[in-house]
Amino acid sequence: MDFPRARQQFYQEIQQPEASLSLAKAALYIAAEAYPELDPVEYLQQLDRITEEIQTQLPKERYPLRVIQTINTYLYEQLGFRGNTEDYYDPRNSFLNEVLNRRTGIPITLALVYLELAQRLEFPMVGIGMPGHFLIRPDFEDAGIFVDAFHQGEVLFPEDCAKRLSQIYGQPVDLQPEFLAPVSPRQFLARMLTNLKMIYLYNHQIEQALAAIERILLLFPQAPMELRDRGLISYELGNWSLATQDLEDYLRYLPQAQDGSMIRKILANMESDRG
């Protein structure tokens, strides 16, 4: 594949079985496209060093809440990590190297740091893809608690998650079971890239948004909405051959799509102009 080196490394990492896929490595390969001089080993070692410091502070009895409290004390109180509430949509919040350098980020990247530390401490946790706000929880049956890495590692119960969801959307929201379901590593990375894509689109950085979409499609090659968005961006950039293929695939996967008539009109216009 004719990809930049960082893209090739990302692709190779996501070919690993789910249990072996390193979120930290994959996230650093995502960042390396924006920071070509980035050395992933440096940041992996930084995570190792933080883990070693936490390890020295852990109590002998490693009950879940005590482990979480120890991580929280070191990560947030001693190192000063925090959620970036001042500039939430800064692209740097989505890059693991910048999150570690600046000690601030958005829910999913702070969750990534937390997950990596927990894994190294042999305290497995999983990502929870709640709409609008990413959480994590200990990975054992009936854990019953969730951790909000964006809010200083606050421990939440399901009713707290429901309140947080209602706060985010500004109205009461019924907490559906699927809102608190764990996500796979590939789903985790796709959500990271989707955040990045939306930030770039908001900032009118079209080519960067396209790069984010292309990596989502490496994770999920048949994702209809990403095919549509890549097709629309390709159309705007004048790459009509790729645009036609993607938009036709989108309609093949979702023939009843609400925006189907608009997409068919774009396809017809390209065909007419080519003819």
How would you describe what is shown here?
- By secondary structure, the protein is mainly alpha-helical.
- 58% of the residues lie in helices and 7% in strands.
- The protein has twelve helices and six strands.
- Helix 1 runs antiparallel to helix 2.
- The longest helix is centred in the N-terminal third of the chain and has 18 residues.
Strand content: 5-15%
- State the total count of DSSP E strands: 6
For the termini, the CA-CA separation is 32 Å
User: Going across the major beta sheet, what is the strand order?
Assistant: 1-2
Order of helices and strands: HHHHEHEHEEEEHHHHHH
Mean pLDDT: 94
Number of helices: 12
Helix content, binned percent: 55-70%
Q: In terms of structural class, how would the helical and strand content be classed?
A: mainly alpha
The biggest sheet, with number of strands, parallel, antiparallel or mixed sense and barrel status, is: 2 strands, parallel
